[in-house]
Write a structure and sequence with these properties.
Elements (H helix, E strand, L loop, with lengths): L2 E5 L6 H12 L2 E4 H9 L3 H8 L1 H15 L5 E4 L8 H9 L3 E7 L1 H8 L6 H5 L2 H15 L2 E5 L4 H14 L1
Parallel strand pairs: 1-3, 1-4, 2-3, 4-5
């Protein structure tokens, strides 16, 4: 249980759950989006605006390739990371268990209702985007955790229990 990558739709709780895993299970947490922003010295929304989504996706792939070589991490991935097979392949080749945090769309919508920082929400219908990504998250994942509105510590415990059983 020393190489976990959390995936799921934006607002599903990946970063919050990763922080709970870090606190409760002594895993070091890295948010791949924040890592990319720090490395590029630019917000993701600026990358999308200035250079386009493909530029960001290449930076995301580079980050995942670099970070997945390290163990003892829980990575919280960007919402679109596992929609690219090259990222899934890099994670699995390096021994990461991909955990899909499957949060109810109504809860996600409520969490994102005042969030203007997400570039793909500006140009896409949230229902369409969510529904197109759902089967991809499911097929990329080794473990699926279905949540409604549990707290992060509870979800972290659910993940640990499933990994131990796997």
């Amino acid at each position: 249980m020393n190489a976990i990558a959390l995936c799921g739709f934006m607002g599903c709780g990946k970063t919050t759950v990763a922080l709970a895993l870090e606190k409760n299970y002594k895993l070091k947490h890295i948010d791949t989006d924040k890592y990319i922003e720090e490395k590029e010295n630019m917000l993701i929304s600026q990358m999308f605006e200035n250079f386009g989504e493909n530029y960001f996706r290449d930076k995301e792939h580079d980050a995942i390739c670099t970070l997945s070589k390290e163990k003892g991490f829980v990575l919280s991935l960007g919402g679109g990371a596992v929609t690219f097979e090259r990222n899934v392949k890099a994670l699995k080749e390096n021994g990461y268990k991909i955990v899909f945090i499957n949060t109810d769309l109504a809860i996600i919508k409520k969490r994102l209702e005042n969030d203007s920082s997400r570039p793909l929400l500006k140009s896409n219908d949230i229902d369409t985007l969510y529904n197109s990504r759902l089967p991809i998250y499911e097929s990329a994942s080794d473990i699926i955790i279905t949540c409604s509105d549990e707290d992060a510590d509870t979800v972290a415990q659910m993940i640990v229990n499933k990994i131990k059983k796997a």
